[in-house]
Design goal:
single chain; alpha+beta; Ubiquitin-like (UB roll); Fumarate Reductase Iron-sulfur Protein, Chain B, domain 2; 2 domains; five-stranded mixed beta sheet; two-stranded antiparallel sheet; elongated
């Protein structure tokens, strides 16, 4: 019997190789530091790992004092916004393969808000502005059934419902950096969400609030906010629409 010629089985896919990356993190401990300073850490990672994975590895294996916020780790809660290589991003959505690892990856807290420790800032001023624009549906009538809304009416404000209050847009704004009284993009985006909601009856109140020297007119249309938004909201466009509504005196 002749020996059958057997095809060779395909070789198994080669395992994904880990690489070493250096993270340069801007550290600050208010108990011992007078000013923030930079510290470098080397970590072994996969290309599909995220910056959040690198931070976890540093905290769990190298320096337990490293302080940062995170919760869902899936780009929904918005708690891990930080500056990565000079840009506001969510650490849980930033993949290592999308960064240049030939040089240290810089990680620091978002700007414009009081620094508390390492990558953690005081969010109270941010949420104070958010509360001031009355971010909730206001309607005096009590309908017997659900308030109906057409597809077109919903589409009018659909984009601004995506905000996760991460502060990436607001803390990327040069005006906000220099003027702590400015409402900031996130507050205006959330005002937009209700100003253009056909079911809401207090649009005029919100327009009056934003028609202020620290309101929509402080925006300089630099598009930093739009570039920084991890949800892809057209922030600058939303601000322009609110400006137009203020001039009209109605949505």
């Amino acid at each position: 019997m002749s020996n059958a010629v057997m095809d060779k089985a395909p070789a198994a896919d080669a395992p994904i190789q880990k690489f070493t990356a250096t993270l340069s993190i801007r550290r600050f401990d208010p108990d011992v530091d007078s000013e923030p300073h930079w510290e470098e850490f080397s970590v072994e990672l996969l290309p599909t790992d995220r910056v959040l994975d690198a931070l976890h590895q540093i905290k769990w294996e190298q320096d337990g004092s490293l302080t940062f916020r995170r919760s869902c780790a899936h780009g929904v809660c918005g708690s891990d916004a930080m500056r990565i290589n000079g840009r506001n991003r969510l650490a849980c959505k930033t993949l290592m393969k999308d960064l240049d690892i030939s040089k240290p990856i810089t990680v620091e807290a978002i700007k414009g808000l009081p620094l508390e420790k390492d990558l953690v800032v005081d969010m109270d001023p941010f949420f104070a502005s958010y509360r001031e624009i009355q971010p909730f549906l206001q309607a005096s009538s009590k309908p017997e059934k659900e308030r109906l809304q057409s597809v077109a009416e919903r589409a009018r404000f659909d984009d601004t419902t995506k905000c996760i209050l991460c502060a990436a847009c607001t803390s990327s704004c040069p005006v906000f950096w220099t003027d702590g009284q400015y409402f900031g993009p996130a507050a205006i985006v959330n005002a937009h969400r209700f100003i253009f909601d056909s079911r809401d009856e207090e649009a005029k109140v919100r327009l009056d609030i934003l028609n202020d020297k620290e309101g929509v007119w402080r925006c300089r249309t630099t598009f930093n906010c739009t570039d920084a938004c991890p949800r892809g909201i057209q922030v600058t466009q939303a601000i322009a629409e609110v400006k137009a509504a203020v001039l009209r005196g109605r949505p």
